[in-house]
Design brief:
This protein is mainly alpha-helical and 189 residues long. The chain has helices at 3-13, 16-35, 40-49, 58-67, 79-94, 100-107, 118-129, 138-146, 151-168, 175-187. Helix 4 (58-67) crosses helix 5. The chain binds 2'-deoxyguanosine-5'-diphosphate (DGI) and fe (iii) ion (FE) (3 copies).
Length: 189
């Protein structure tokens, strides 16, 4: 899919605020791809498209989990976990986006996982640090990326903050989120 078509699809599908977030994730990701020798075009496309299914009804997301055979275990999670996997599968199935790196980057953008590819790591981080994000101490993550230039350390710090945040809010933590936390604890540079 061409960038222009992706932008149009997201513009037509998502509310303006989320559309603008998607563009900022793509821009932040592109900057990171230059620094970390990533694939700029793949990062841009994944950034634009990552939240495509963010506003689908839960029932619709569940139907897609079954249709795309994403695994019945996903049915015990809400849309915050499902919107990535469903978007990845739909883009592959209906829009012929068959690049593996882009697929995994969109699929895992919320939870992360162990051993992410470079596009996947960049999207995971860019989603957290795009300029309008205002989580407490997000500037620390921006500095790890743009000053220290440590991608894996940024993934670890984001996972850690996400897990602490979820526990504080009594939310269930997806296994992949924990696997990501543990893997990048051991592998962050
Ligand atoms: O879609 P975005 O808002 O841009 O960001 P996202 O897809 O990274 O995260 C969506 C939400 O999912 C966010 O509020 C954090 C939450 N989240 C991340 N990991 C987990 C999680 N929620 C649950 N329940 N479990 C997780 O492991
Ligand atoms: Fe998302
Ligand atoms: Fe995220
Ligand atoms: Fe996002």
């Amino acid at each position: 899919m061409k960038i222009k078509k992706a932008v149009k699809l997201v513009e037509e599908t998502l509310p303006t605020k989320r559309y603008n977030h998607s563009l900022r994730v793509a821009e932040t990701g592109k900057k990171m791809a230059e620094i970390f020798d990533g694939d700029i075009k793949k990062v841009e496309l994944a950034g634009i498209l990552h939240d495509l299914c963010k506003y689908e009804e839960l029932s619709e997301l569940y139907q897609s989990v079954t249709k795309y055979e994403l695994g019945q275990d996903l049915l015990s999670y809400g849309s915050e976990i499902l919107h990535g996997p469903v978007a990845a599968a739909r883009l592959k199935d209906e829009y012929e986006i068959d690049d593996e790196e882009i697929y995994y980057a969109i699929y895992n953008h919320t939870t992360g996982r162990a051993q992410m590819n470079k596009t996947e790591k960049i999207i995971f981080i860019a989603d957290y640090i795009e300029p309008k994000r205002d989580q407490p101490c997000v500037d620390e993550i921006r500095d790890i990326v743009f000053k220290e230039k440590k991608l894996d350390k940024a993934v670890y710090e984001i996972s850690k903050r996400t897990v602490l945040h979820l526990i504080n809010k009594d939310k269930t933590v997806h296994l992949k989120t924990i696997e990501c936390l543990n893997y990048y604890n051991l592998h962050s540079d």
